[in-house]
Amino acid sequence: GQQVMQIPQYQHVQEGEDFTTYCNSSTTLSNIQWYKQRPGGHPVFLIQLVKSGEVKKQKRLTFQFGEAKKNSSLHITATQTTDVGTYFCAGNPAGNQFYFGTGTSLTVIP
Amino acid sequence: EPEVTQTPSHQVTQMGQEVILRCVPISNHLYFYWYRQILGQKVEFLVSFYNNEISEKSEIFDDQFSVERPDGSNFTLKIRSTKLEDSAMYFCASSAGGAGNQPQHFGDGTRLSIL
Question: Cα–Cα distance between A71 and A80 in angstroms, integer?
Answer without folding.
Answer: 26
